[in-house]
Amino acid sequence: MKATHFSILFGLPLLLLSCEEKMDIDLNKAAARIVIDAQLSDASSVQRIRISRSVGFDDPVNTSGIKDATVLVKDNENRSYSFQYEKDGYYTHPNFKPTAGRKYTLLANVQKQQYSSSTQMPTYVAVDSTHLSEKNIAGKTYFFVALTFKDPAKIPNYYLYSLSINGGAFRFASAQSDQFNDGLKVTHYISDLETDLSPGDNVTVRRYCVDEKTYRYWNEYQNNNLSNAAPSNPKSNISNNALGYFSVASVKEYKLKIGH
Predict the structure, then answer these.
(1) Could you give the CA distance from residue 230 to residue 211 in angstroms, rounded to a whole number?
(2) Residue 95's domain is classified under what CATH number?
(3) Is residue 111 part of a domain?
(4) What does the pLDDT look like over 60-87, one tens digit per residue?
(5) Closest to 38 in 3D by CA, of 121, 100, 102
């Protein structure tokens, strides 16, 4: 019984920092489409955006990188950041650290087609404390990373979590909003969707404060994975029928070790 199954009982709703995190995008057997994975953050001055083309869902690799695209990000203070091709569909900028409160626009020219998206980078909501939560369900112990904080009142806030176990790749863990706890003291419980946390594990959680469209994308993704319906592509916030999403987020990491 994995944590993703029993987290529903506790009302716990289910990133890729640049190219380091594993992105799992459900691609059905529809016609090939452009996929843009653009999750920028203030965790680093190096930013990466991947542009690819979807292939068959049953193929070993779900996307194929595109080389000859033009990728530009602009902010509302007339700054422009041109991304250069690296490899495997990744385009990078070596010195671009986004600032909370600014509006950013992605402009991509891919195979003579234009794609665009805009977002405003949220301010980070500080975490007051972190701890490990141990729950006994049906005679078995399960572990969660718990993050407690005061949600800002009268401001819509959206949170995205990814998790790494013992230095492994970061995987999406949870997307949450303050729809039912605006302005309250809140605790989010985070666990891996594929592997139960165990004593001795070193766990790193990345917590992103994101905009509403990014939240909706990942909330749709997690709802699809909880349902019995056939997987579908989450609704993108990028124009021209692209897959994927554009986000500029504020982020911090939290490291914990599960004691023996």
Answers:
(1) 27
(2) 2.60.40
(3) yes
(4) 446 789 999 999 999 999 999 999 999 9
(5) 121
